[in-house]
Amino acid sequence: MSDNIQPLEPSHVTAPSRRSFLAASAAAVFAMNRIASGDEYAADAPPVRYPDPRLISLDSRFDALKLGNTPIQRIYHSKQMLWAEGPAWNAVGRYLLWSDIPNNLQHRWLEEDGHVSVMRNPAQNSNGNTFDWQGRQISCEHLTRSVVRYEHDGTRTVLANSFDGKSLNAPNDAVVHPNGDIWFTDPGYGGLMDYEGELAETGSVQPYQKEAIYRIDSSTGNLTKVADDIFKPNGLCFSPDYTLLYAADTGASHYEQARKEIRVWNVADEKSLTNGRTFASMNLEISRDGKTETVAGMADGIRCDVHGNIWSSAGWVGDGYDGVHVFAAEDGQRIGQILLPEICSNVCFGGTKRNRLFMTASQSVYAVYVNVRGAHITWDRCAVLGLLRQLRKSPGLSVDRRPQLINSFRTETSMRCRRVWQKNVSASIENQTEEQEPLKNRDWLPQRRRNSVNHGLGRVPVQVSWGPQRKNHDICSTSWWCRGCW
User: Mean pLDDT throughout 422-451?
Assistant: First the structure.
């Protein structure tokens, strides 16, 4: 066990004022009473009076992130669903994907009509899901102890299932870096029970090896351990500019000395992690029966918004705690809560504008619109950037081959992507060579370039002439969407 786990510095978190604490406590009590009064999400339940009392500000910074005229909605519920996990949004298909781990299924919810169907059966007790920069689904499988990728033709490719000659424990959650590398956690829960995978016969809380965070190199396929200074790494996400990696530690489920917290590391050279430390504690003061007490549940799945705030699932305490907790990027202080009547396992941003938070919670899936967009990729953005990377990695690609690749791209992407492509990229690649000057017509450039941290996609180096600034240009990878389609 690595011993360099650092405690949270006292100066790292600013305590909320007494006024904000009392206001939040009153709101929490009101929300808990509403929850206790019956099924507030039933079809015949009374409407919610705005603002939804289950959206709780603990700090004024959360006021700018929540909306006053929107409710928390339960978009799916089934008594047959046992443990919903791993939500991932596909923008081209306009659907939400998630896993039901014990039932060995993956479900899909369609945005246009709310229809839910089984997307994959069996799913190898999959947990976390995401999409890569080419739009292919990545899944973490408990049963096979593997990270896999579903190709465009539907075939399944195993990306990782062992390290240092030993089986992985049971990969849990994964994220994709703009360079194509896949980072994932391996806490081992699927190896500790048959209910969510296959019970390992090792008799250890580390089914096959020390729990860790890994990186799959997109160029070589090699697997590298990047961190093990954490008890049981669970959900993970990058900061908007990909310079930080956050991970929830759920080690308290099996290690007495483990703290209930979210940890953070610096990402060095896009390949390794340094300076592991506590980002946020899951301890929370709540008021019950006129008494104030400190409770601590566990974070699980986490996501980042474009401002760098961390939205974390939270559970295993009860009313007034379970749901989603939001932590400020600057200091790791808890600034808001979204209370749910079930234990929340994971979250993701999605919807047409990426301003809808989806929450998998036990036997239900919830959603709420927020006043901020989620950071990182959704698939129609991925497709454009994926093609650009193919072109950049193939400097010797013949002029005859480029139109073929472009046409292939056009047939595989959505109409929204095609509009972006025709408006912003097509003329530049089809009509220019390295020797030619940038296009005279620069109308497609955004009127005001925005910082990549605010967009949440980082900067992607593109080795072609895109605009008047300079030739080898670090383009903000969402600048094309600043105006027009979005």
Answer: 40
